[in-house]
């Protein structure tokens, strides 16, 4: 018994749609989870600003609060405790 062209195309199409939909549904739920997390503003140290000023400096970014310890571990600090270089606008964290 021969299947119609629609029948022959329908099965692969459904499989492809399923393979695309699963990763997309993961991204949507991940984005929704991230949107629910509290956000904090930090001074994020970067190489460009540090090279210009000659000491660890960076720019302000907003991150999910759970990522704060990882950022602090490599020298970033909360924006509220950072200073700003008036000439460049780069932020830097106070020495501890």
Main β-sheet description: 3 strands, antiparallel
Distance between the termini: 79 Å
Number of strands: 5
Question: Which residues form runs of ≥5 with pLDDT under 50?
Answer: none
Determine the fraction of residues in helical runs and give it as a percent range: 40-55%
Q: Which class best fits the helix and strand makeup? A: alpha+beta
Output mean pLDDT. 80
What general form does the structure show?
elongated
Largest beta sheet: strand ordering:
2-1-3
The gyration radius over C-alpha positions equals 24 Å
SS summary, helix count: 3
What number of structural domains do the residues give? 2
Spell out the helices and strands N to C: HEHEHEEE
Quaternary structure state of the chains depicted: single chain
Portion in beta strands: 15-25%
Structure summary:
This protein is α+β, with helices and mostly antiparallel strands and 96 residues long. The protein has helices at residues 5-36, 47-53, 68-73; strands at residues 39-45, 58-64, 77-78, 83-84, 91-92. The longest helix is centred in the first third of the chain and has 32 residues, at 5-36.
Question: How would you describe this protein?
Answer:
With 96 residues, the chain is α+β, with helices and mostly antiparallel strands. It has two domains: 1-36; 38-92, no CATH class. It has helices at residues 5-36, 47-53, 68-73; strands spanning 39-45, 58-64, 77-78, 83-84, 91-92. It has a three-stranded antiparallel sheet with strand order 2-1-3. Strands 4-5 form a two-stranded antiparallel sheet. β4 (83-84) and β5 form a beta hairpin. It is elongated and about 70 Å long. The N and C termini lie far apart (79 Å).
């Amino acid at each position: 018994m021969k299947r119609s062209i629609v029948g022959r195309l329908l099965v692969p199409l459904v499989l492809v749609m399923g393979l695309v939909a699963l990763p997309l549904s993961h991204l949507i739920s991940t984005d929704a989870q991230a949107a629910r997390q509290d956000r904090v503003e930090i001074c994020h140290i970067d190489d460009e600003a540090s090279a210009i000023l000659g000491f660890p400096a960076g720019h302000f970014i907003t991150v999910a609060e759970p990522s704060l310890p990882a950022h602090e571990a490599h020298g970033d600090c909360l924006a509220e405790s950072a200073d700003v270089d008036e000439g460049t606008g780069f932020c830097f964290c106070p020495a501890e």
